[in-house]
Amino acid sequence: MQPTRDIPWHEGSWLNEPENVRIDGTDLLVTARDRSDFWRTTSYGFVRDDGHALLTEFPPGSATEVTFLADFTALYDQAGLLIRVDPRTWIKAGVEMSDGLPHVGAVVTHGVSDWSLAPVPDWHGRPVTIRASRTGDAVTIRARCEDGPWRLVRLAPLAPDATATAGPFCCSPERAGLQVRFTRRSQGPADPALHLPD
């Protein structure tokens, strides 16, 4: 496995081109299209697959990180990391506005979507990093704000032989004009264990 490296913004390909993309210094500014989202069926009854993600390979034994500013104002504004196998098999994890507060959470989709989240009001407007580590038949999702401690967000299944891609994503299910500032993405070796030492 190669050592951890930053992935330049010109690498990878867009799943669903955003409204606008531009480089600002070392950051990537992405403006989401109106009513963009990733979701399949559960509770809401619709299928949406028009969110935006800049994807590169996510092989077994690797970990991918994405850092962005969690500066959201409208219901369901969201950004983070998307892992994708196909339109029916994907994971998104990040920060999303819900009930007037930012929440850290994940949606795991195998045919239909689920959703888990927890409020993180003190993360508003601050840099957040989402990390996905792929080992065996699972992906371990962690998150942290600035240089704070990692917190476990989700342990989700992902077939060992699945060809997956991963990278930064954003969606704006309720409005136009959401702009997300991504500050870094990187890839390196997978975490050695589910529970990291203190």
CATH topology: Jelly Rolls
Please identify the structural class as seen in this structure.
Answer: mainly beta
- What is the correct CATH architecture? Sandwich
Q: Radius of gyration, Cα only, in angstroms?
A: 15 Å
Let me know the average pLDDT: 96
What's the structural domain tally? 1
What's the main sheet like? 8 strands, antiparallel
Strand segment count: 18
Give the distance, in angstroms, between the N- and C-terminal Cα atoms. Answer: 24 Å
- Describe the global form: globular
Helix content: under 10%
Order of helices and strands: EEEEEEEEEEEEEEEEEE
The number of helices is: 0
Pfam family, one: DUF1349
Protein name: DUF1349 domain-containing protein
InterPro entries: ConA-like_dom_sf (IPR013320), DUF1349 (IPR009784), UCP022704 (IPR015987)
Organism: Kitasatospora aureofaciens (Streptomyces aureofaciens)
Characteristics of this structure?
eight-stranded antiparallel sheet; 57% strand; globular; mainly beta; Jelly Rolls; 198 residues
